[in-house]
Structure formats: structure tokens, C-alpha cells
Write a structure and sequence with these properties.
The protein is mainly alpha-helical. It has 13 helices and no strands. Helix 3 crosses helix 13, helix 4 packs parallel to helix 7 and helix 4 runs antiparallel to helix 10.
């Protein structure tokens, strides 16, 4: 005689399953809300940069339509401003500062993590103070130094300031990652006849996620900075993108089409580079948790 199998009922109480669902859903919901909040200003800037001025304030949340579409902002930026100069200045300052910061910072981090010498800990603490003390507190002293060195209204002056601003965080993060590289691997390379420069070159690919994260964290504040370009390099020949946008903002009249178009053009390279290196940044952030 064939018997019908009894249906399998879950032994988990309903309250337990609801709690597990909420534990998984609430973090996702928080991340979705945060993503919307972060992307909403960017979305507003981009869509309103393609509208006529009266529609920017008349219907700011609507997408451009054939009736509202207008490229007057981009035409103004191209024809009335030196946006190409501003863009190239920002690119030169950002790329130069980033490359020199990574080079100097990685070498300093390798020395601090690899070699034990008197004052090693004190030097690491001293460098860490640069993370806690904002560099803008020393603006007056920095300006006096740049004047004495004849570096005012030069891109070199901005590059040096940004390197000094970025080095503490770079050294702090890279040194912690380099300490996780197995000592046996470096000793094996030395036994094979590698000098310290070759050992340093061996370590760098192993901390690539940290370098990618530092690149993003260093690049974005430099590209978006207005403080030091306004103080150290305010001339038209050395102005950056963020400083160049200010010419469209006045006390009584502001060209919002040009402002939004400039901001949209300025965001493009940052977004592209972020998309390229975002995986490296996520890997560096989760490296400690997955270890």
C-alpha cells in the first residue's frame, strides 16, 4: 500500500524568520537610501545643465524635453571662459600630486614597516598627526612660505601643498598593508640576491588594493579643492576647474547654466576614474575583514 508523504513544514518560528529577513534587508535599505542621497545632487546638476535658465528654477526635477532642452551653458563655458586651461591645470596638479604622493608615501611606508630603527614609532606617530590636524590651519604660514619661495601663482606650489596634505594618510595606510606582507617572501628575495629596491618592487604589487584606494581618496579632494587654488594660485593662467567656475557666480547675477555645465564637465573624469578603481578601493576596505 502506497502512502502519501507528509508535507515538510519549516521548524523555524515565524518570528525568527522575520528577524533574519530584517537583519538582511535593513542594511540593504540603508545603503539604497544613502546611494539615492549621494547621487541625487549629481543627477540634478546633470539634467539641469541641459535646460534653459527659466526651466532650471521652474521645473528643476523634470528631465530635459525638446521644449526645455538648451546647450547655452556649454556654449558659454566653451566660448566665454578658458575652460580648457582650467581643466588642464586641474589635471596636471591632480596627476602630479597623486603620482608623487604614491611614490614618496610608498617608499616611506616601506621603510617604516620594514626597518626597525631608533625613533621608528615616534616618527610614525608624528606622521599620523598630519591626519588629525587639518592643513588649512596652517594656511597663513603656507602662504608666507610660498611667497618667500616665489611659488605663488604656480602649479608647483599647489602640487607641493597637496603632496604634504596627502602623505600622512598614504603612509599610514600603506605601512599597515606592507606589514601584512610575509617576511619570508622578502627574505627569500634577499637570499636570491635582490637589493632593497627589488624587494620594494616586489611588495608594491601585493598592496595594489591599498594603492588604488589611496589614489581615489587622494585624487577627489585635490580635484575638488577650492581653498588653496583661491589663495595660492588665483591667476587666470593657474586657475583650476573649481576656481574657474566661480567666474560665473556673482553677487547680484549668476549664470547658472554655465555653472551647472562647468560642474558637469568637471565631474566626468572623476566619475570615470572612480569607476575604474572602485574595485581596488572595495578590496582594500574589506581586506582586513576577510583576513
Amino acid at each position: 500500500m502506497q502512502t502519501t508523504p507528509e508535507p515538510i513544514h519549516s521548524t523555524e518560528p515565524l518570528a525568527y524568520r522575520a528577524r533574519k529577513f530584517l537583519e538582511a534587508a535593513i542594511p540593504q535599505l540603508i545603503l539604497i537610501v544613502y546611494t539615492v542621497i549621494a547621487l541625487f545632487p549629481i543627477f540634478m546638476i546633470v539634467i539641469n545643465s541641459f535646460k534653459a535658465k527659466k526651466y532650471i528654477f521652474g521645473s528643476p526635477f523634470s528631465l530635459p524635453t525638446p521644449a526645455t532642452f538648451d546647450l547655452i551653458g556649454y556654449k558659454t563655458v566653451i566660448e566665454r571662459s578658458h575652460f580648457g586651461t582650467y581643466f588642464s591645470n586641474s589635471l596636471i596638479v591632480t596627476v602630479s600630486s597623486l603620482l608623487l604622493t604614491l611614490l614618496i608615501g610608498s617608499m616611506a611606508a616601506f621603510a617604516l614597516s620594514e626597518y626597525k630603527f631608533k625613533g621608528n614609532t615616534l616618527l610614525a606617530i608624528y606622521l599620523s598627526l598630519g591626519i588629525m590636524i587639518p592643513i588649512r590651519l596652517g594656511t597663513v604660514g603656507i602662504l608666507n612660505l610660498m611667497v618667500s619661495l616665489n611659488l605663488v601663482n604656480t602649479l608647483l606650489g599647489l602640487i607641493l601643498v597637496y603632496i604634504a596634505q596627502s602623505l600622512p594618510m598614504t603612509i599610514f595606510i600603506l605601512s599597515s598593508f606592507m606589514r601584512q606582507v610575509p617576511k619570508e617572501l622578502k627574505d627569500a628575495a634577499r637570499i636570491d640576491g635582490a637589493n632593497e629596491y627589488w624587494v620594494f618592487g616586489l611588495v608594491i604589487p601585493l598592496v595594489r588594493p591599498a594603492i588604488g584606494a589611496i589614489g581615489i581618496f587622494t585624487m577627489i579632494p585635490i580635484w575638488n579643492d577650492l581653498w588653496f587654488p583661491l589663495i595660492l594660485a588665483p591667476s587666470a593662467a593657474t586657475a583650476t576647474v573649481t576656481l574657474g567656475v566661480q567666474q560665473f557666480l556673482g553677487q547680484f547675477v549668476s549664470d547658472w547654466n554655465a555653472v551647472l555645465a562647468s560642474l558637469t564637465l568637471a565631474m566626468v573624469p572623476i566619475l570615470i576614474i572612480y569607476l575604474i578603481f572602485s574595485r581596488q578601493m572595495i578590496r582594500s576596505i574589506t581586506a582586513g575583514a576577510l583576513k
